[in-house]
Amino acid sequence: MESKLIAAKSEPLWNTNNKVISIVCALVVLLFTLPLFGLNSFYLHLFIMIFMHAVMAQSWNVIAGFSGQISLGHGAFFGIGAYATSFFYMQYGITPWISIFFGMFISGIFAILIGIPMLRLSGHYFAIATLLIGISFQVVFQRWDLVGAASGLWVTMTPEDSWIALQFHSSKVPYYYVFLIFFLITFFVVWLLSRSKLGYRLRAVRDDPQAALSLCINVSNYKIIAYVISAMIMAPMGSLFAQYILIIDPDRVFNIEISIIVLLITVLGGIGNVWGPIIGASILIPISEYSRIYLGGTGGAVDLIFYGLILMIICIFRPNGLISFIPKDILERKKQR
Amino acid sequence: MKILSVENLSRSFGGIKANDNISFDVEQGTILGIIGPNGAGKSTLFDLITGYTKADNGKVQFFEKNIFGLSPDKISNLGVGRTFQKLKPFADQTLLENVMIGAFVKEKNIKRARDKALEIIDFVDLVEKRHHFAKELSTGQRKRLEMARAMAIEPKLLLMDEVTGGVDQKTIPGLVELIKKLKKTGVTIITIEHNINIIMEISDNVLALDQGQRIAFGPPKEIQKNKQVIDAYLGTFDAA
Known about the structure:
The complex is a heterodimer of chains A (about 325) and B (about 240). Chain A is mostly helical and about 325 residues long. Chain A is built from 15 helices and two strands. The two termini of chain A are about 15 Å apart. Chain B is of the alpha/beta class. Chain B has one domain (about 1-85, about 155-240): 3-Layer(aba) Sandwich (Rossmann fold), CATH 3.40.50.300. Chain B has helices at about 40-50, 70-75, 95-105, 110-125, 140-150, 170-185, 195-200, 220-225, 225-240; strands at about 1-15, 15-25, 30-35, 55-60, 65, 80, 155-160, 190, 205-210, 215-220.
């Protein structure tokens, strides 16, 4: 009896599978060296979109996958991030490197303001409320003259590539690295979060809020914390996207599609799992881009039908997402029989 | 020393008085058993004490501090643990993770919280199941999980709702032994039980409820002889 306990205590806290670590390290190195092989701008764009959507999906994963609150208005935080950098740069000449944090901060504040009343609502009602909030942001920005109303903001172009203004006209490679670094940082942070006390408590809130209360967990506060973290992950992607395309308008950055795609990516990859959004984005974004090329265009929405079909198949046959193809004990916790 | 003092606690749902002026005290280090037929208001009483349901009126004092009207997380933070009649394990997490979430209340360091959780899991005799997901455990094991999880917050008072309910006969003696072992650690226990023999065996005092009202309170031997209790509960129990 005693020896079983001693054996259990001597186990490492986490299952560190050396193979997985080496594969991840190799992939990271590969991602850093990829542009050196002279990728053309389409592939650079593809990777940038994968990084960006993976982070956006990870943001959604924090609120929905970790704390169990389905948000359908996450595009709002993307839009706030996009407008924050563009607006402060155009009005006050503040470098995006600083206003990225403004965007995060403002998103965090809105997450608190929205979260306090809304996260008291249970399940579906929170989803509906956030859906409407997402749409209201779009409506407000379409009519707000200070930020260009419906025509949006056309970011003043620098004559040359500039790291300070975070604008690159001659090549997509700098954007590639900026997005890649944000992608890696975000995943590291969320990976740490999932293993922290906070991560444990959020999963408790998700699995059973009533039981969580009996363990001294203030359920509403933890939901708000998750919502704020989630919003603050989303905003920088809006900021970087604005720097990437340099023309933003409410229809693009507050589009309901943003709120939906983060959900689709996460569900496809595996909700509640740190790796889910990476896998989801790596598969869905190329499919989306390629189907747009080959099936979209003037043909209308055939690409979207194709897209929907894949998701239906996943939902029916792999409700836990593509991550469920990988045995659990390889990636996550150790389970011994 | 009185650990819990309940005075005139009442709660109605619509026209039904689920708890009607319930009063009783619990001495530190003892086991209070609560009995009563289905619908007597036992679980409601638990929910009122732990803040899951707001009482209409009354007074609840824990170590002479008024806890009436506090939210469940605040009450648990003061040292009141509980389990649930309808089990509420964190189903998609392992037994160890379930207990660790409780252990984090007193222990911030992950490694130490893990070790503490393991000790408690060892106490409830489930070490070899530690990496099993809660949803894979049997009902009896999930009852132990809930006890372990509640113990992990180091409660001074532990409320257990039907520990032996819904498990097979072979499992019951082990759970009863566990309650006795738990009492030896010094924690005060209030337990709801349908099995009258168990209540008589483990309790220092028994509170009998019927239709939301307190019909008797006292040591098990007195309760056994109480006419109201026999009429309301034991009589039908024996006949059944």
